[in-house]
Design a protein that fits this description.
Elements: H1 2-31, E1 35-37, H2 43-48, E2 53-58, H3 63-80, E3 87-92, H4 97-102, E4 110-115, E5 118-121, H5 128-137, E6 143-145, H6 149-155, E7 165-169, H7 175-186, E8 192-196, H8 199-204, E9 213-217, E10 226-228, H9 235-245, H10 255-262, E11 268-272, H11 278-296, E12 301-305, H12 316-320, E13 324-328, E14 333-335, H13 343-351, E15 374-376, H14 381-384, E16 391-397, H15 402-417, E17 424-430, E18 448-452, E19 461-462, H16 469-479
Parallel strand pairs: 1-3, 2-3, 6-8, 7-8, 11-12, 15-17, 16-17
Antiparallel strand pairs: 2-4, 4-5, 7-9, 9-10, 11-13, 13-14, 16-18, 18-19
Helix pairs in contact: 3-5, 7-9, 11-13, 15-16
Length: 488
Amino acid sequence: SYSFCTLLFAMKMKLLAAVASAMLLGARAEEDEFVRVATDANWKEVVESEELVLVEFYAPWCGHCKQLAPKFEEAAKILAENDPPIRLAKVDATVEKAQAAAAGVSGYPTLKVYRNGAMSDYGGSRETDGIVSYMKEQTGPSSIEITDSADAKSKFNKKTLDHVAIVGYFASENLDYKIFMQVADHYRGKFAFYHVKAQNVLEGLGYYGSKSAITIYRPFDKKGFKKIYNGGIYKQAVTDWVLDMGLPRVGFANKDMMELLALKSKPILRAFVPSEKREALEKDLVKLLEPIEKKHGKKLVFAINDEGHDAYNIDEKDLASGKAIVIEEPKKRFVYTEAQGSVAEWVEKWTTKQAAQWTKSEKPAPKAAADEVQVVVGSTFNDIVMDTTKDVLLEVYAPWCGHCKALEPKYNELAKLFEDDKNIIIAKIDGTANDIAHKKYQASGFPTLLFATSTGKDTPIPYEGAREPADMEKWIRDHATVQLNEEL
């Protein structure tokens, strides 16, 4: 019948499509001789079955991914000859969405390290040599076995130990041991892990019986140098305990430590110091911040840094005196000033949502002449753009943007066309150097043109017409809500 023939034809087409897809996949894998192609369907075979594999999540249209491709391929070729071989794989994240979502991919390319299926962030460079060296560092066990009790006693000496050390004691390679090794893999390169299995070493260190134990040694805290884990040995519980115990409550934090602090998923209070005065200021800052940490440690994590202050336009005097302190939330920043009281009072205001939010801003520009474009910065946005007596056309631009550069002379000409209209402001703001507090004025691309009328400041009108002075002038006059000069 007709319906049967139709069904048969559809089945044939599906079969042909499947064969073509398989051929395409095979050709693609063949093209990348040393980089395996991972998909949602073959994930267990390509990734989870490997002891160690580096996976790139990419998008076919991504320029950065195209730049990385030959370097990634060359690294894969070199690592394939390593003993043991180290595998590299790639995933088209626009197609294989399940694994991309599981890896938390939000941009391209994203690199992740998988060890027996367990994922961790890639921390190396995107050059061939950097990929090779980083992945070679990932080989071998994440925890070093201690086979001599005398060695253990000297290694974890309070006077000589210069790094955080986590030690596991296990009577056999039981489930507790395997969980400990998974935690060591998770923090590889961040903390030093050791383990003891030999019965004579265990007894020499005072451990008897079959019960597992985990100890952490913390050279940054002489009073609390040794801490013993008291909970059940579950991966998440031990992972959290190591992170909680392995970092000082208040103290200097380098780049690796800042990455670890970020894992706590809390806002971070950062106190900045100049590197040349770090030791002198650090003691005073610890003394200042420790009482605050005791009170607000459940809401905040604390760190002292000697870099990163440039982003906040902090005065050199404040930096040199230990008063350069900020609180960073995922989408908000708060900068301490003496006008807000003591640091303790300022933090208290932050906890009750009374602290003033900091706005990233260039220095305010002078008022423009009547026939010029008015420059807006983060700190002057409300005064200029949100002025309810004016209609304001705002260009959000980027200095590197080619379209913005092409628009500039035309935009300047537009300002001249409104020279006699004092209630019309032609303005621009560098969207890369200034924060715009109002969510309706966020730019998804450059340039973005928004018309903030006197009566509609919370609902700016996007300008999407031709970018010629005459066209923009006519559109503004058609949409204006303020009184205009009668002469056109």
